[in-house]
Amino acid sequence: MAASVPSRPLLRLLVFLLPLAAAFFLLTPRARADHAADLVADLQAMRAQSPSGVIHLDDRAVSRFLTSAPSPRPYSLVVFFDAAQLRSRPDLRLPQLRSEFGLVSDAFAARHRSDPAALSRVFFCDIEFGESQSSFALFGVSSLPHVRHVGPAAANLKDSETMRQSDFSGLAESMAEFVEAKTGFPVGPIDRPPVVSGRRLALLAAAALILAPFLVRRVIAGNTLLHEPQIWVAFAVFVYFFSVSGAMHNIIRNMPMFLPDREDPTKLVFFFQGSGMQLGAEGFAVGFLYTVVGLMMALATHGLVWVRNPTLQRVAMLIAMSISFWAVRKVVYLDNWKTGYSVHAYWPSRWR
């Protein structure tokens, strides 16, 4: 039986549709590439308008650059989540962390200024809760501070990569490590603004030059506090306490002395359980215990040698040893509580 021959109208329709289909499949990738290039160009323009290079996003921008943009996208977004009503809370440190986030953005831009291709692959953004509550819900953000990395292939924003809460204590350096680990691009050195401006430094230098003759005259005459032994003893104890209490850690990372209890805001938390964070009061408590041990050792080595009565020497030595044992035991207990690791005594095999 002979095969049926298609009618002429059907052939004409096929001849008309085949070129259209070919043109569609040929032009679709190009249209997608043009759309992606437009998105990158808009992000670059928005970054150029920001002083720190951080792009401010709202719900409309999140929809355009993330949810509506087909994946894989030719860029990654590192997003800092902010809330204007919470900036006054000292425990969250949102203004400081936002400033540190801007330093990371500046460092990344300076590192890749000569490489436009790499500079167009990563963009730093921020989202404010008051004007972008829908975006917070899309990301599933329920607590601050919060930083997310949205990779090129991320389809669901809740599956984007989150920076750990314990890493915020490292400020810009920890944020830079997070960006490098997730994007694969180096950030570069963090350039912090100087603590003292050039004008203030010049005023201090001028004041030092004016006061120098009077200070030198008093030093030569021996009429200063620097000639008092008690001042040097107190200063030595202060330096020892400053070094063992983690005060430099608190200053560099701007750690709070305490935090409000999340379950009961009327209570304060002075000791944070977990090795990733240490509050200021906790460091001062440990520093006090270390200082007590140091003072007991100083008393035994520099004070008891002047005591002539052997009985009094032994009693004072026992008291110093008891106080030192109590202080060391408290430090070990705190370390066990924070880290979960216990300290065990191991006796030599000959003593068993």
TrEMBL record:
Keywords: Endoplasmic reticulum, Membrane, Signal, Transmembrane, Transmembrane helix. Subunit of the oligosaccharyl transferase (OST) complex that catalyzes the initial transfer of a defined glycan (Glc(3)Man(9)GlcNAc(2) in eukaryotes) from the lipid carrier dolichol-pyrophosphate to an asparagine residue within an Asn-X-Ser/Thr consensus motif in nascent polypeptide chains, the first step in protein N-glycosylation. N-glycosylation occurs cotranslationally and the complex associates with the Sec61 complex at the channel-forming translocon complex that mediates protein translocation across the endoplasmic reticulum (ER). All subunits are required for a maximal enzyme activity. The keyword Signal applies. It is a multi-pass membrane protein. One of its GO terms (cellular component) is oligosaccharyltransferase complex. It is found in: Endoplasmic reticulum membrane. PANTHER family: DOLICHYL-DIPHOSPHOOLIGOSACCHARIDE--PROTEIN GLYCOSYLTRANSFERASE-RELATED, GH11935P. The keyword Membrane applies. It comes from Anthurium amnicola. Belongs to the OST3/OST6 family. This is Uncharacterized protein ZK686.3. The chain crosses the membrane at residues 201-220, 232-252, 284-307, 314-332. InterPro entries: OligosaccharylTrfase_OST3/OST6. The lineage of its organism: Eukaryota, Viridiplantae, Streptophyta, Embryophyta, Tracheophyta. It holds the Pfam family OST3_OST6. Residues 1-33 form the signal peptide. GO terms for biological process: protein N-linked glycosylation via asparagine.
